[in-house]
UniProtKB/TrEMBL annotation:
Residues 139-249 form the KEN domain. Keywords: ATP-binding, Nucleotide-binding. It comes from Electrophorus voltai. Residues 1-136 form the Protein kinase domain. GO terms for biological process: intrinsic apoptotic signaling pathway in response to endoplasmic reticulum stress; IRE1-mediated unfolded protein response; mRNA processing. The lineage of its organism: Eukaryota, Metazoa, Chordata, Craniata, Vertebrata. One of its GO terms (molecular function) is unfolded protein binding. Gene3D superfamilies: KEN domain, Transferase(Phosphotransferase) domain 1. This is Protein kinase domain-containing protein. The keyword ATP-binding applies. GO terms for cellular component: IRE1-TRAF2-ASK1 complex. Pfam families: Pkinase, Ribonuc_2-5A. SUPFAM superfamilies: Protein kinase-like (PK-like).
Length: 249
């Protein structure tokens, strides 16, 4: 039924030609004399921590699949790198929980992979949680997230924000596409929205501006693609809000 096209990448095709992901980490080899399961099989460096540990009694669970899937996600996104390295140290790094995501720049990608490859099985996401991670969100859903942030109390009070928050936001803004966000929008729109109260030239001001634009100027939103205008805004804001425990529900 299945035609194995690449054991290394765990990709197989079914009889209709559709590609499927598979994992042989807990498969067993059968010889010609018996149908009993014998020695365990699995590709080195592509097994969960708990299946490598010889004295572990935790067994192989769904969370084990999640860790291996996280390794595969990183391998794909990084174009061929393993989060736990390569060679003789790879499996010991898995056991020690030592990984590197240096080949990823996107903070949302890092957040997903880091969650999935956690060395503690209880801290890994379930399949359902993985699939609703922001990495899989559409642009429209990401905009909705930014609008929700723009309606939070700290953002509503963007003109009287605390000094500590402003300093942290300023450090995050350096070198980003949204560092001078006011110049990215049509000047007529900015003037119309600001009135007598200009928006602060920081992320709080931008988030409030976005919220108000979508709330009061729908015709302008149809002309604006925030993900193209500020390609790094969502990932940086998501990371900042998560670190501060301020992600909206």
């Amino acid at each position: 039924i299945f035609n194995v096209i690449s054991f290394i990448f765990h990709v197989i095709t079914d009889i209709t030609g559709k590609a499927r992901l598979a994992d042989f980490g807990i498969s067993r080899r059968l010889n010609f004399q018996t149908t009993l399961r014998t020695s365990p099989a699995g590709k080195k460096c592509w097994k969960a921590k708990e299946t490598i540990e010889e004295d572990s009694n935790s067994g192989y669970k769904r969370s084990s699949d999640i860790q291996v899937a996280g390794m595969l996600v990183y391998y794909i996104l990084s174009r061929g790198h393993h989060p736990f390295g390569k060679g003789a140290r790879c499996e010991s790094n898995i056991l020690d929980g030592k990984y590197s995501l240096e080949h990823l720049d996107d903070e949302v990608e890092k957040d997903l992979v880091e969650w999935m490859i956690s060395d503690d099985p209880s801290k890994r996401p379930r399949v359902e949680e993985t699939l609703v991670h922001p990495f899989f969100w559409t642009d429209d859903k990401r905009v909705e997230y930014l609008k929700k942030l723009g309606n939070m109390e700290e953002v509503q009070n963007c003109r009287q924000a605390e000094e500590e928050l402003l300093k942290a936001l300023e450090e995050m803004t350096v070198g980003k596409t949204f560092s001078d966000w006011g110049a990215k929008f049509p000047s007529e729109l900015v003037q119309k929205m600001e009135g007598r109260k200009p928006y602060p030239e920081n992320i709080l001001g931008l988030l409030r501006f976005i919220r108000n634009m979508y709330e009061h100027y729908p015709e302008e939103t149809r002309k604006t693609n925030l993900m193209i205008l500020f390609p790094d805004l969502f990932e940086d804001v998501f990371k900042f809000a998560k670190e501060r425990g301020r992600n909206p529900a």
